[in-house]
Each structure stands twice: as C-alpha cells, then as structure tokens.
Amino acid sequence: MVYQCHVNVNGELASILEPGKKYIIRLASEDLGVKRWAYGDQEQFVDNDGKPGHDPEAVKLVNSKPTAGNATFSVVKSLPWPPRLETRMRLCASSLTSDSILANVKLSNSTALEVSVINTGSESVTVQTQGHQHFLIPWGPFQPEPDADDDRMRILHPTPHKPPTSSLQVVDSATGKVVRGNAQRGTGPLTDSNADRRPKAEDVVTLKPGAPIIRKIDIGALVDRLVDGQYKIRMQSRGCWWWHGEIEKEVGEDGRVEAQLCGTFIPPLMLESQDEVELRIRDGKVDQRK
After folding, report:
1. Which of 42, 94, 164, 269 could be a cystine partner for 242, CB 3.0 to 4.6 Å?
2. What is the C-alpha to C-alpha distance for residues 79 and 88, in angstroms, rounded to an integer?
3. What is the pLDDT, as a whole number, of residue 49?
4. Whole-angstrom distance between the N-terminal and C-terminal Cα of the chain?
5. Where is this region: Disordered (predicted)?
6. 10-residue mean pLDDT series, the chain (290 residues)
7. 255: which residues sit within 8 A by CB, 6+ positions away?
8. Which residues form the domain of 121?
9. Is 135 part of any domain?
10. What is the domain count for the chain?
11. Within a domain: residue 124?
12. Nearest to 25 by CA among 71, 63, 73
C-alpha cells in the first residue's frame, strides 16, 4: 500500500524548505505505529462507533529496511514549464506529401499512420526525440515509475531505418486486450560514465507555435499477422527533454546541444494523444474501405 503526502506550498512543511538546499525526510523510528490487525476490509475492521468489529490481534509493525523509508530531494525556486502539445493520429495512404516527412524510407505496405503534433504555446520549443532524456522523472516507493526513463525513439523522430512505434499499442476492439506493443522496455546498452550525453542535432526537433509537424509512420510490422477483426491503435504517453528556443541557435561546432542547456531540473514535455485510430484487418491486411 502506498500513501502520498502532498506538500502544500503555503503549508508548515514548505515554509522551512529553502531553494538551493537538499533535504532528506525519514521515519522518526522503525515503529510504523500499527498496534493491531485482523483479516477483512476497512468496513469490517471497525463498527459504526469506530470500535474494532472483531477481536484484532496485537502486533507491532516495523520498517525492516531503513533505506526504504527515506525521501531525498532538492528544492528549487521555480521550474520552467513546457507548453501543451496537441497530438492527432489517423490512418492514411503512405504516399509522400510536401508537408510531411516519412519516418522510414521504404514502406512495407500501403498503410501508414499519420501523426500531427502542434505546439499550442506562444514560444518555440526544441524537443529531444531519441537517446538519454535529461528531465525530472517521477519515482515510486522504490524505483522510477515504469517507462519514465525510456530512451527509445519518440514518435516525432524522423528515422530512416526503423519506424518509431515503441509508444503505440494495438488493442482488440472486441476484448479490449492489448495485442501488440505491450512489451516491457529492455535494458539499454551500457555507456561510459565519461561519455558525452548531450543530444546530437539530428536527435532534436523544433516545434514552432501553431505550426504542425507531421510524420507518416509505417505500421506494417506493428499489424503484421494480426487475425482478422476490428482493432484500435493507441499512443502511450512519453516524456521528452526540451528547452525554449530553436535548434539552430543552440548547437555547438561538434554537432551537439550546448552543455548549459542540459540541466536536470526540468519537468518533461509530454507526447500523448487521446485519439484512438480504428482499423479492420481483412484477409491479413488493413482494410481501408469505408
């Protein structure tokens, strides 16, 4: 069971925290304060008078792993906040158009997923689409939340080799079961601790206010060998490292983003979509007939 304590910025705890300092919150003792227990849910445990409904057994619940009872954090005065992106998806023919970039050179069939991303903010932002992401990640009780530090290609990445479909899921419309794209991310390659982790210029893309970026993504491998039936394509949310500005102004002579931009105290810009793209598989192929 996980309990979360929200820190109110105007509350007593927040009043003692100072920007620029690092803090640790830990349990006052290993005793967690539980005195009695009984099998059953909360309603069965106490009666209407708030008294135990059973004869609970006496128990002393303790924290057996002191290191798991710590919360370490730094305090900053403020955080830059990313704009909201509007991401739309639809099925389309895979022919090249003047306002789109194919996410792979040779499409495997005649069906593509068109993804359109619009920056709804008032400033240009540059987004990292591949590699190690330098943003704040949410931590659960013992480890980062699932996929929070996923370094696979984002759906905006214009790769000429492999369609960036790692954030896509195919769902059986009849059962609601995810049939493709639910694999857990594997362990990434080991890197030298002294390796330069600044993003390369080809791994970032600038989103100007109100100007859509369109990608056409080959989904042939994603839907290959599906049994005939009705399906939906969904997009899982993915975080991206970002900054306010354009790539042309922030790349050094070595082709990488300037080091001063690569801070870690920044929340992720989220790539996500509420769209669900419906498709029918007939005779082993995507049926685009209305």
Report:
1. 269
2. 28
3. 63
4. 48
5. 180-201
6. 78 92 84 70 60 62 70 87 96 57 45 94 95 81 65 84 87 95 58 77 94 92 92 94 89 86 85 95 79
7. 200, 201
8. 85-184+198-287
9. yes
10. 2
11. yes
12. 71
Question: CA 187 to CA 175: how far, in whole Å?
Answer: 31
Are 145 and 176 within one domain? Answer: yes
Sign for the CA dihedral angle at 270, 202, 164, 106 comes to: positive
Which pLDDT does position 161 carry in this prediction? 67
Nearest to 144 by CA among 21, 268, 259: 268
**Domain check: are 124 and 46 in the same one?**
no
* Residue 226 burial (10 A CB sphere; 0-12, 13-18, 19+): middle
Same domain for 96 and 19, yes or no, is no
Domain assignment of residue 39, yes or no:
yes
Which residue type does 177 have?
K
Rounded-to-integer distance, Cα 216 and Cα 211, Å: 16
> Do both 45 and 125 map to the same domain?
no
Half-sphere exposure of 81 (CA within 13 A, CB side): 6
